[in-house]
Amino acid sequence: VSGSLPADMCINLRLILVSGKTKEFLFSPNDSAADIAKHVYDNWPMDWEEEQVSSPNILRLIYQGRFLHGNVTLGALKLPLGKTTVMHLVARETLPEPNSQGQRNREKTGESNCCVIL
């Protein structure tokens, strides 16, 4: 959470809820996904009242279609300082397993879901 860093040394996150509501927050590149979830939970916007969750532990960030694990920092994602980055914020108890996309499993077993039209 940015604290006293100047804005050009921070990352502006525009968080989007499933409902479509958005809010912008400033964070340091050292902040992790878990830090962000806790900060957002502790500073829950008033106009997000209907989406309020029971715990910061179920808030998950999605960036470029992927769930961010709690220890991933914004700096590790190489997000541009002083610019706005958009992420989705969802309530979810657990993250999907890394192999759950199915693609890797098919490659290992040689199976395919493709059809051959003759």
Automatic annotation (TrEMBL):
<dbReference type="InterPro" id="IPR040015">
    <property type="entry name" value="UBL3-like"/>
</dbReference>
<dbReference type="InterPro" id="IPR029071">
    <property type="entry name" value="Ubiquitin-like_domsf"/>
</dbReference>
<keyword id="KW-0488">Methylation</keyword>
<feature type="domain" description="Ubiquitin-like">
    <location>
        <begin position="11"/>
        <end position="89"/>
    </location>
</feature>
<dbReference type="InterPro" id="IPR000626">
    <property type="entry name" value="Ubiquitin-like_dom"/>
</dbReference>
<keyword id="KW-0564">Palmitate</keyword>
<keyword id="KW-0636">Prenylation</keyword>
<keyword id="KW-1003">Cell membrane</keyword>
<dbReference type="Pfam" id="PF13881">
    <property type="entry name" value="Rad60-SLD_2"/>
</dbReference>
<dbReference type="InterPro" id="IPR047977">
    <property type="entry name" value="UBL3_Ubl_met"/>
</dbReference>
<dbReference type="GO" id="GO:0005886">
    <property type="term" value="C:plasma membrane"/>
</dbReference>
<protein>
    <recommendedName>
        <fullName>Ubiquitin-like protein</fullName>
    </recommendedName>
</protein>
<dbReference type="InterPro" id="IPR039540">
    <property type="entry name" value="UBL3-like_ubiquitin_dom"/>
</dbReference>
<keyword id="KW-0449">Lipoprotein</keyword>
<keyword id="KW-0472">Membrane</keyword>
<dbReference type="InterPro" id="IPR017000">
    <property type="entry name" value="MUB"/>
</dbReference>
